[in-house]
Amino acid sequence: MQGLDDVELLVYEKSAGKREQQAFLKTLATRQFDVLLNMHASWRANRISRFIRAPRKIGFDRARARDAQWLFTNERIAPAHQPHVIDGLFGFAARLGVPRDDLQWRLPLGPEDYALADRINPDAKPLIVISPCSSQRARNYRNWPVERFVDVVRTLLERYDSTIAVTGSDSEEEHRYAASIAAVAPDAIHNLVGQSSLKSLAALIDRAACVICPDSGPAHIASAVDTPVIGMYATSNPGRTGPVRNPEYTVNRYPDAVQRYLNRSVDNVRWGRRVRHPDAMLLIDTQSVEQQIDRILG
Fold first, then answer.
1. Is the pLDDT of residue 30 over 80?
2. Is the pLDDT of residue 135 over 90?
3. Which ranges in 108-224 belong to alpha helices (H)?
4. β-pairing, 251-252 with 189-191?
5. Partners of 75 in the beta sheet?
6. Listed residue (151, 142, 109) closest to 236, CA to CA
7. 3-state class of 226 per DSSP?
8. Cα 137–Cα 1–Cα 134 angle in degrees, nearest 5
9. What pLDDT is stored for residue 294 in this prediction?
10. DSSP state, 99?
11. Sequence-separated (6 or more) residues with CB below 8 Å from residue 254
């Protein structure tokens, strides 16, 4: 968001020490705002909201106001039945009387942000971005097996004259994934794990023909820049957290995972219920992903 016109960013650094956090909150308390949109229902957000001076403090409806958010707000958005996360956020705009319009993120990307994409793909071949891992949280289980990514990459190189970029954060797991994938064809596959900023990643995805990833941030960046994304969903419901744009390319095995590992149907589980089983992503086969690649590139 850095660089958006008429937007001032006041960043609360979660990793900062207690003294630095307290100093930030005291500074925040000296400001006056017209409205607080408490769009993250959590104890941390609730705590911060106490220091924000605003006559209107808007939060989620009671059903979605987790961690007792209703105690820290004086207005609520309208209830919604089984909404996508972005629809919930649009509820705040509706509360302010702002009509819903075409989705336009207008990410502030400059030439310096596109430098990485230009460097790895000077011949402007079809660029495929593979971001193989989701966040490394306990019992997350969103990652597809690296061996299946390797099979997909081999198919990509056989069928299409493309440039492949593997992206991710600087974690041991993501380095392991990237090394295995890049080893298939070191001259054609660029291992960019730990080498991109959020803006250069967004620029890379903007230049891409498609993105392949599990339920993770790059899927939503792809929606923001209108790049087709092949999202792989089994442990989470794409109806709630899947790509907003081009959802037809999503490989959705969430209903199968709910049936197999929870012994229930999607209609009989809480909206957004996670399937926390390490084998759930195995329900996604390589052929299903390759079919979506052919739809986009073929």
1. yes
2. no
3. 111-120, 146-159, 172-182, 198-207, 217-224
4. unpaired
5. 58
6. 142
7. coil
8. 20
9. 96
10. P
11. 233, 234, 235, 236, 237, 238, 266, 275
